[in-house]
Amino acid sequence: MKNKAIVVGAGIVGLSVARALADKGYNVTVVDKSAKAIGASVRNFGMVWPIGQPSGELYQLARKSAEIWKLVCDGTGMWYNQSGSLHVANNEIEWTVLNELYDIFNKEGRPVQLLSKGEIAKLYPYINQQSLLGGLFSSDELIVDPRIAAAHVSTYLSELMNVQFLWNFSATEIGEGYIKNSDKILHADYVFICSGHEMETLFPAVFNETPITKCKLQMMRFQMPAHGTIGTSVCGGLSLLHYGSFKQSSSLPLLKKFAEENFPLNLQYGIHVMVSQHEKGELTVGDSHEYGNIFDPFDRYDINDLIIQYLNRFMNASDWKISASWHGIYPKMTDGSSWFFILLLIVFIF
Hints:
The protein is α/β, with parallel strands linked by helices. It folds into two domains: 4-44 and 146-210 and 337-348, 3-Layer(bba) Sandwich (FAD/NAD(P)-binding domain), CATH 3.50.50.60; 66-144 and 212-333, 2-Layer Sandwich (D-Amino Acid Oxidase, Chain A, domain 2). 32% of the residues lie in helices and 25% in strands. It contains ten helices and 19 strands. It has helices at residues 12-23, 57-76, 92-108, 117-123, 146-160, 199-202, 204-209, 252-262, 264-268, 301-314; strands at 4-8, 27-31, 47-48, 85-89, 112-116, 134-138, 142-143, 164-166, 173-175, 178-180, 185-187, 190-193, 212-223, 233-235, 274-277, 283-286, 290-292, 321-333, 346-348. The strands form four sheets. Strands 4, 5, 6, 13, 14, 15, 16, 17 and 18 form a nine-stranded mixed beta sheet that branches. A five-stranded parallel beta sheet has the order 8-2-1-12-19, with helices on one face. Helix 1 (12-23) runs parallel beside helix 5 and helix 2 packs across helix 5 (146-160). The chain is globular, with a radius of gyration of 21 Å.
């Protein structure tokens, strides 16, 4: 008889846990309080992003995640694009950092190459050439459309892996081996809580005692004229200060000092600018990072303006038109770790 598992939350974390459990032979039920995933899992770039992960376990997990994404996309017919990523340099410090990272990543066996200004101009004409010095290209990265991805993964799990989904199921009580809502109780051998920042509501004491905060990020979607294509996901220099994999560069403190002197508001609001493109040509641009336990529910135009201003430093985006703006909220560990577990037949994963 198969062990039973319940996963609370049908976002990407919950779906990945459900897939792993079903792959190991568990009888899996996923519950979600809404009729579909509407949280942070649909409010992002859709970037599958090994380049941002430090070498070792996290980088290998990111590469494995990319392979699973391709397997799921092929199984459902969902669009994806292994477009790679390009980090561009618009000043000498950024270019030095990229050269250092190329040497490090190349020795580690990552699929990276340095591109000159001329090479970028030929390959990616939408990149602003005015102050461009060059860029670091990685072929690891791929794009899915986050607005449809969770729904397609749910279909894949339901139809091909026999995972059961109970939508509009608001868990009001969770204990060892059971969950319940206002009129039903479900039993299982294991319960996995994958509810993102809403763990604060389900387990306030755990949330308060664990090194977790919440992050609000603002993002936008743009339309390009004439259905152009940017060819790859593109990141400006401030992104080099954001991801853990780039900390290996010995010149990164110089870049941090440069940013503090030239882009203080960007650092204040955690702004680093990236752009990805989806199947219909729409461009996702962001983002900002505000940390705390409570946030203003309204998006700030001044933050969006800072994002757009920085975007135009490295992309020819002056004629792009905003079609949507939004924000997402997700939990973040404050001690530098990537996840934590509490083993009481209840598992929390971030």
